[in-house]
Amino acid sequence: MSQFLKIRHLSLVAALTLGLLTCPSAFALSSDRNQAITIHSDSAERDEIKGTTTYSGNVVMQQGSMRIDAEEVVIVNDKSKVTQIVATGNPARYQQKPSADDGPVVAQANRLEYNIAQDTLHLIDNALLQQEGTSLSGNRIDYDVKKSVVKAGGDASQNERVKMVIPARSLKQQEEE
Question: Phi and psi of 120, rounded to 5°?
Answer without folding.
Answer: -130, 145
